Amino acid sequence: MDQLLAIRAFARVVEAGSFTKAADTLGMPNASLTKAIQALEAHLRVKLLQRTTRRVSVTQEGAQYYEKTQRLLKELDDVDASFSAAQSKPRGHLRVDMGSSVANLILLPALPAFLERYPDIRIDLGVSDKHVNLIGDNVDCVIRGGELTDLSLVGRQVGSASWVTCATPAYLQKHGIPQHPSELQEGHSIVQYLSTRTGRGLPLHFEKNGQKVEVAGGRAVGINESNAHVAAGVAGLGVIQTFRYAAAPHLASGALVPILEKWQPAPYPFYVVYPSNRYVSNRLRVFIDWTADLFSALD
């Protein structure tokens, strides 16, 4: 038995919650992965996993074994990295997931320069406003906005984005220009961004001199994709609150007009997030640094 391979296989099944997904991420046949874990259980003389037709669960002994072996695997990765990092040129495959506005307006326009600098790195992008399972979906990292709440993930803040509340000139001519956020509650239509987790409309936030106001009512349309959300505002469907970088071309052309500019909510933080138990490869490290440079230029 290759004990190190078996331990890594076991860890990946625990993280992915599936033999099939674990086998895919490790690039090995499902049968080989199953055989490796069975050999590990026979060697330890304990049952590590309970497998049914629908799901895989970890036994109490399996949870203890996973926790202890994770420390060993991380130390081993650190040792390997200390010898190879100085000599290796960033290379290999990165799987990155991000929201659509980040992809279309920030990352993709700059990506040719990154690939020219690091020609041996190949990147697969997942573009969606829906959150992914980093382990189960075999993703190296995600670019994610908002505060981190998942303790199993590590995030490096790479920047923040300012907000703008805006509407078309025709809409404002018809409905009037609000002077206070509370005026949006009546007589105005709001195009709300819908949470991809809950499906609920996210409220508009405003802040001025320490006073905070939240506006949740008056929804005309709800949209769960960031580019379409801006497009709805440009179409004149109502007031939108979005990232200034996303609305910038339309603000510059006059298609959208900013309102309530003295009521500016706090900037929205963006992170590059990856699993806490995963070794940060040289290629991932340079990608994170490059992403931080991109976000530092945001308004």
TrEMBL record:
PROSITE patterns: HTH_LYSR
Domain of life of the native organism: Bacteria
Alphabetical GO biological process terms: DNA-templated transcription
Keyword RNA-binding: no
MF term (GO), any: sequence-specific DNA binding
All copies of domain HTH lysR-type, residue ranges: 1-59
Keywords: DNA-binding, Transcription, Transcription regulation
Chain coiled-coil ranges: none
Entry similarity comment: Belongs to the LysR transcriptional regulatory family.
Name this protein carries in UniProt: LysR family transcriptional regulator
